[in-house]
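TICKET #2291
ISSUE: user wants both folds in one file
ATTACHMENT 1:
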Amino acid sequence: MAMAVWLPAGLAPAQPATEPALAVLSPDRQQSAIGKEILERLTNGHYTRIRLNDQASSRIYNEYLRTLDRTRSYFLAADVAEFEPLRERFDDLLKVGELKPAFNMFNRYRRRVAERFRFVIRVLDEEFDTLDFGKEESLARQNATWAASVTELKGRWRRQVKGDVLNGLLAGTEREELRTALRRRYDNQLKRLAQSNQTDVFRVYMNSFLRAIDPHTAYSPPHQSENFNIHMSLSLEGIGAVLQADGESVKVVRLVPGGPADKAGDLQAGDRIVGVAQGEEGEMVDILGMRLDEVVSLIRGPKETTVRLDIIPNVGAAGERRIIRIVRNKVDLKEQQASSRILEVKVAGRTQKIGVIRLPTFYVDFAALRAGDPNYKSTTGDVRRLISELEDAGVGGIVIDLRDNGGGALQEAISLVGLFIRKGPVVQVRDGRGIIRVHSDPDPGIVYRGPLAVLVNRLSASASEIFAGALQDYGRGLVLGGQTFGKGTVQTLIPIRRGRQGQLKLTQAKFYRISGDSTQHRGVIPDIEFPGVIDKTEVGESSLDNALAWDSIDQARYDRAGETAPYVDALTARHHRRANLDPDFVHLKARIARLERERRENTISLSEKTRRERQKSDELRELQSENTRRVARGEKPFASFAELDAHNEKQAASAASQDDPLLDEAANILADLVELKRTAAAAPAAQTGS
């Protein structure tokens, strides 16, 4: 029997007669059937065996409301109060395929957005020349409450216009050029708003529903099929960036090592992209509110062409925006392959050689492997060769550098661990039924027995975490650097209505270390932690809403391959003594402290005088910090910030010339470990007189 569905009486999306009406969007029967199939797939196949109830309904409501208006810039408090009775009804509505209330909320959202954009255009047309930048007022990065009245909401948006104009003035843009550009931005957004259709509403609602379960479960409708791999992996061909939708903007999750964005050096993890332009002269297209696949199509393009991005940096003052330029290209496969170098470190009066193997991803040539080619390209094969070359060169230890390595072929992570242990389990995988499979290295051979360290950071994820966690559990090597990403779930692609209506990416399993600890959410905690500039509240699994929790299972049966734990305290003490005196580390810590202060700022001044004074103060502070470092290193200080800025641009263009204090310190710690082990081995011999 059909279930009676309650709808809030006032939720009808009527338009005031004074405004041009937007088309009222309504669901169709096919979308109702798709929604019920997605729900069935979710309840039968998701790792957590999810069951919809009032608690889950509340999460869905929160996620949908947050998706529509993350910064609380459009809805009024009265709108939200009107929506509130739906909070515990979404579960019942989804079960019967009733989508109308969600569509009505979206229609109200479109109406409010149109009202706000029309207001902004009126401000630009009628008040632009009288905007007062001498007045001391501020703009909130994110509003804490819903506006109680239209008047309050207009005040917020008038300040938003002032903030946009002031950013342009500080960047040197002429006032009239700014007025034209901003008016065009909001005109375009109004046009885009009018073009949204029922498929857009259904996609937004379904993905809000799925994100309320976990952030990696997602629905992709049919029209996105040709870009499905991009949509699912969130990997952009053209600039080499991994993105995700974040409210109305698009957030950079990480950069592909060796890609154009990585080499350019201006785009960073956590940055938000709000505009895209083609070439040096192309019009900046505002991408706020665009689908991720639409943003992808704008950023992708022929190699050796330029794309300009309007970004809100993750590091910097609240509300700051910058235009950056990236020349598109394909990621050079050689940049993704394992490579090596040798660092020389002085410890206890001796110079030690420490080998470094840089591993940007876990790769394998599947086609050659399937064809039976014994010389197929793989991570394990390349690292095996590099280890041999480093040992021939007489290195005393090896650092495996996995910073920014977002994962790749799981089997390669498993076989790579096998180069450093005899044999045994590497990772455990548990599915939603509780069945645990143990993936092991079956090869009893050991390629490298010497001292080992693994260098990781917040962008080391998935297979990188499995590799680092296994070596840490075996006691085979030190893990150094920053807490890793925490991506410990496994997804599977499932066709909807036999593939004719899109695909569902569904979380169906979880990774566990051989110790029994999950890598999910928590990641791998280093034995010795280094400072890092990446904001953990913006990047990493723990920064994602509704991420599955950390947990543990029974440990696998394995024999430890070594013992690094007894040395960690002594190594940590040596590290801190060195870091407190090292100019690069002192400079890095000062920069991190400054960035953390800026991140805590939720408001930005709209006074031109205050902002220019702040700009000069920031430049002076950065110049002084850099010159303190240079003097300590015996280098000539910069005479001005402009000279420093030019130097930084030159450095960014040549990644090979950049200093890497974290890698240098990892080599120092490993050299310390070699020395401590040598001293410990010599002590018994001295006592016995041998």
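ATTACHMENT 2:
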Amino acid sequence: MEEKKLNFLEEIIEKDLAEGKIDSIMTRFPPEPNGYLHLGHAKSICLNFGLAQKYGGKTNLRYDDTNPVKEDVEYVDSIKEDIKWLGFQWDKELYASDYFDQLYQWAEDLIRRGLAYVDDQTQEEIRAGRGTIDTPGTDSPFRNRSVEENLRLFREMRDGKYADGEKVLRAKIDMAHPNMMFRDPLLYRIKHASHHRTGDKWCIYPMYDYTHGQCDSIEHITHSICTLEFDVHRPLYDWFIETLGIYPSHQYEFARLNLTYTLMSKRKLLELVQKQIVSGWDDPRMPTLCGVRRRGYTAEALKMFCDKIGVSKRDQLMDIQLLEWCVRQDLNARSNRYMVVQDPVKVTITNWPEGKVEWFDCPLNPAEPEGATRKVPFTGELLIEKADFMEDAPKKFFRLKPDGEVRLKYTYIIKCNEVIKDAEGNVVELKCTYDPTTRPGGDPSQWRSVKGTIHWVSTAFAKELELRNYDRLFTLADMSQVPEDKDYKDFLNPESLTLAKGYSEPALLEDKSGIAVQFERTGYYFLDKDSTPEHPIFNKTVALKDSYKVE
């Protein structure tokens, strides 16, 4: 078997280890607790934790909790649950807020060295003063305040003397720098808001660019792995570390996950929840990890998907069918099988002894023919799919038709002798006879076969189900290409959820596997959390087959 080629991050790590730059690898996963994790985060989780595992290192979970207005303990807890569900365990649970005191001291140090100042300009004035890519910025009128005045004002900011937005602390670097990130970036802003961990201790909070690298440095993160949009931030990341003279963590960027028919914007996902366009963060149509988990996607399938798409430095739009293929591959190998009829027509077996019930031992998974089985009851009145019967059938229709034969899966061959219709001409019942010599495992000398095999359930034992059939949430393949005159919500798929009724064999409701099951000949379905014993609800995870080809 050909050895798998290293990705560029693995090459960097192996080189650093070989040259003795580091003794061991230390990574971190740094989510902001302002929403639920989505599929894009799954790629980052698998990358950060996976690299550390491969090279015998460790990974910290560090919450980027520097904006108390948008953050909540609900999100903190959900992030931990999602990481554990994916099968990873962090070394230390840390928070940017753990370092607020140290970050503040470093800010004062920058002020003393003439490298930071308090600015009274408004947000709009600061933005205008930054200039453009083609034109340099202009100095703030407050840029040359004395060290003493800046220290006094910054401490007054900390002590709550000023209102939100009245002042900010900025680094003093270069207003004409070609990288606009260096044009006196903001270090602190005033926010009179209670923090989920520090309460009301602080009313000033550090900005991301000032916080991230220093947190990495404190934790001795060897490889700080970010998505590609942060590559322009890296020089500033390095500037703070070098200027403060602290542990030299370094940032590396990879392409984020973009998926067809999917949005990964937390802001837009939050809007879908708040406007009740979806039922919540864990709506099975959402790309959140709790959403796809509720739909029936497995952690193993997501990790397979992340491995398939690989790690690159170039943004690309991945086909959602690859993700669905991975889900199907994983479930096909592991899920239990059951028969469920969704659009039924009654079949009466006229030569079946009245009141007789015959129980068949049927495999739970054909991949394990000697494995576990379930008991399926067979009686004289059954339900089959309407689509499995055709009155005027074409030549190559191998399911049930008048005077035609078909095998009922796991059991006998039946023949349709009579079609009963209602006053409108709709087929409501099929009267059939069964051939008792065609029971599987019977006398080999009497065995015969037919081309068609269909699924069925016994009417007397059928369990009624609510089926929630989910499709893609959006109709536009590339949601980053929404036209300027349109809103992203204009592309919501009105058929993203359809409700149906199903009738299952009784063993389905005794399934304790904890993963999606296969409705034979139909698709994979997962028991929803809203289910009760009296009202079972199943979410469609993925169709049984697809034309998608994996390269």
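RESOLUTION: both attachments delivered.
EXTRA DETAIL ON ATTACHMENT 2: DSSP finds twelve helices and 27 strands in the chain.
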